[in-house]
């Protein structure tokens, strides 16, 4: 950490800045019946939005576009229907993260429970993050070809768009590959060896929402396959729809950080999915509710993002991902609890690894920061490849600029890395530009605007870094880069109530590109005490005029450190409103994100 001591405060201290407000949208929202606060929140999250407000403010499944609008959707659905009708062996090949696992659950449960496919005809194919790598990797293909019975159809989800060589290998072996994905396609277009490629980001795809997650693409495809099977008379018209699986789609959508801003589809599936989850019909939801405590119910989008998502992702970061799949598919509470124990253990290990890697990464980032580079690129020689993305996120949060974290790959002479972006930078486009500048330095990459992965030859690291920094600089121009917290302004003391929180919650779900409200204000410290096993959290009582609120500030201190303020001091805080439940009673609690004493 010593490398950070000499960095200027402008690099390391976040600035509180008010979100820019679209005044026309602000006025329109109030004219359509939203409160001043709701209009303020909406207008600062959807600049330039011209569409109808109802699909965003009152999410509903009726706003979903028909899956027939997906390019190749009909051909893919008919191929799946044919495999079901003729009893073909089917492989389900998905990514290993939450989006991939929830996609896998949607496809598998649909095939077994709705289409009547015997379990013995299905193969679950999920790559190992460390040993196989992302997508349709060659090791995964070789394992697929060795299966008995060998599948004649492989359905992918959340991967495949950039995997033409491996798809061609399966096609040559007599396997039809139906790709369902949502990642950006390579410049040359969809993989030509695929039987079909269902991806809303295709330039020739008429599906109106390009931001849906991989699990949503899988859900739409399987819904269309159900319709085809009914049309062909293979399934009765009374066959249930896939609506119950939207609980999994909600989890995958939130955890994959796709847009919850101007996306009626994503807002609808998350809103409806949360309603389904909170019925606690599936063992996986009940086991998680028991683990988090009865006061955690009902779940909201933040529960999915910060409690369920990390646990499921932790498994694939550190080990093989099948325990996460078994957890999601568990039919009994006992099985779900046992699998959740495995995920929890992995998550604790992941946290410890992350802490060590983040500390090293912050020290290594000092060079880029002192040179005012437009992005941070660090190589952690002893780093765990499964935690690269999380550490990159920590760097973005700390320094307000894109970050890429590299570690040695399994393949000799290669590095693998994960990157995270900032608002205003499309990360995959930047990597495409870096590839154009130095193709030999970036032979493999993929992702989307906010996150991406790379493979870099070790001997080409300097060339890659130079090309990447140039590409980022071209996109960002003279945009000032520093850590910032966008706030939604101040609340009066009279607004520090559960009623205000309910007013805010009505606009949910919140997530990427529709951030949870963050307010700022000045408070007097009435009480404080460090809490937590290592004393790094602060429990506070803060007053504004006649109102005193309890507050919690997580990770406010480093172990052994004392606060920079004391009782009686005035703090300028950035905070969220939170509903604290305790033994059936509710009270307002402030979640402090940042605070500094005012002199």
Describe this structure in words.
By secondary structure, this protein is an alpha/beta fold. It contains 20 helices and 17 strands. It has a five-stranded parallel sheet, sandwiched between helices. A five-stranded mixed sheet has the order 7-8-9-11-10. β7, α17 and β8 form a beta-alpha-beta unit. The two termini are 28 Å apart. The N terminus is likely disordered.
Low-confidence stretches: 1-5
Spatial sequence of strands, sheet with the most strands: 3-2-4-5-6
What share of the residues lie within helices? 25-40%
Radius of gyration: 24 Å
Quote the distance from N terminus to C terminus: 28 Å
Q: What is the percentage of strand-forming residues? A: 15-25%
Largest sheet: 5 strands, parallel
Number of helices: 20
Question: Outline of this structure?
Answer:
The protein is built from 20 helices and 17 strands.
Which tags fit this structure?
599 residues, 20 helices, 17 strands, 39% helix, globular
What topology emerges from the helices and strands here?
Blueprint: H1 9-12, E1 15-18, H2 23-31, H3 36-43, H4 54-57, H5 73-85, E2 90-94, H6 98-114, E3 122-126, H7 138-145, E4 153-157, H8 164-172, E5 176-180, E6 196-198, H9 214-231, H10 246-255, H11 264-277, H12 283-292, H13 301-318, H14 322-329, H15 333-364, H16 366-370, E7 376-379, H17 388-399, E8 403-408, E9 414-420, H18 427-437, E10 444-447, E11 451-457, H19 461-476, E12 484-487, H20 498-505, E13 519-531, E14 537-544, E15 547-553, E16 570-582, E17 585-597
Parallel strand pairs: 1-12, 2-3, 2-4, 4-5, 5-6, 7-8, 15-17
Antiparallel strand pairs: 8-9, 9-11, 10-11, 13-14, 13-16, 14-15, 16-17
